[in-house]
Known about the structure:
Blueprint: E1 3-9, E2 18-24, E3 31-40, H1 43-49, E4 66-73, E5 85-88, E6 91-93, H2 99-102, E7 114-115, E8 135-139, E9 144-145, H3 152-155, H4 161-171, E10 179-183, H5 187-198, E11 202-207, H6 213-219, E12 223-226, E13 240-245, H7 253-257, E14 260-268, H8 280-284, E15 289-292, H9 298-311, E16 318-320, H10 325-333, E17 341-344
Parallel strand pairs: 10-11, 10-13, 11-12, 13-14, 14-15, 16-17
Antiparallel strand pairs: 1-2, 3-4, 3-8, 3-17, 4-5, 5-9, 6-7
Helix pairs in contact: 4-5, 4-9
One zinc ion binds at residues 42, 44, 64, 160.
Amino acid sequence: MPKNVPAYGARAAKAPLVGLTIERRDPGPHDLDIGILYCGICHSDLHKVNNDWGSTHFPIVPGHEIVGRVTSRGSRVDRFQEGDLVGVGCLVDSCRTCPACRAGHEMFCEKGVTFSFDSPERDGTSRTYGGYSSRMVVDERYVLRIPKGLDPARAAPLLCAGITTYSPLRQFGCKSGDRVAVVGLGGLGHMAVKFAASLGAEVTVLSSSQEKEKDALRLGAKHFVTTREPEALGPLRGSFDLILDTVSATHDMDQLARLLRSFGTLVLVGLPPSGVTVDVSGLVHGNRRVAGSNIGGIAETQEMLDDCGRSGVLADIEIIRADQINVAYRRMQLGDVRYRFVIDIASLGG
Ligand code: NAP
Ligand code: ZN
Ligand code: ZN
């Protein structure tokens, strides 16, 4: 019998999130039943609820930065025990056999990845519901181990904001002494600053919020520049090896591309609803590169969590109750996030 589970979600685009009841499948032999403790709020949840990308199916229960405990396990589960502290990120299934899955890039599964929420289940009939809920049933292959000693609430944002910034820093070879700019100091941005600084890079934060300067320096940045004063960017022209752009709204890309040194790379991870444009000549003159990066695969996510277990890198969070989600969404829309809202799932009841 499927289980009824309390959740928080939206019934229509831009509608406030409200309490809902959803059904979870019975755990199969390879599944873990997870009692959710904490779930981070990513700006992608907000884009999805607003139907910014035009792809949302309602009702929707967002949430893909999930930490919980295994409450029961299927008969053929061999990597987890009851009581283990585990994480679930953006992915909960994929075909497992295509070249992308075999290479550990499950997010690019050629047969279609199953995301944690608003995605067709592999049975082709039901849809997935995310972590703003008290329980979840997930195949153990897509479940991450949270290293011992990490605060579970502060670890939750690692499951998306963490891997989404860790992965491009690794892909583009960020190393000690590199000059790295992080654009937008929100959930992703603050993790990017921490990871880049921990790799020994000299980090500059480019932010539209002057009042975040002190925080940027505390998080590990050496410099802070406000993008609200374009003339402040002049002296930075041609100076960065790598720019990680986490901004969630349309903004001036050419201004950023000009800050790259020759052969430098501007990596886009933010997903503004109406996209961005870039001037070709600014790229050609300087062999500058523009790239994108999408979360990370399961093995890379585990590697990132294990690294955080050793280094102690965690998110800076504000814990909220489920009935504060709508306020958190409004604050996020205004860029007022310090630096990830995390829902205490006990506040949902159930
Ligand atoms: P967030 O916490 O809301 O942070 C976004 C930051 O962007 C804000 O704090 C603000 O920083 C800046 N910003 C917002 N609106 C702006 C505007 N109009 N002009 C200039 N700057 C603005 O969001 P997040 O959770 O980090 O997510 C950021 C983006 O990444 C979203 O679009 C999300 O969908 C996307 N995302 C992508 C992936 C992926 O796999 N590629 C994964 C997760 C999320 P300042 O105050 O410092 O300017
Ligand atoms: Zn996310
Ligand atoms: Zn596949």
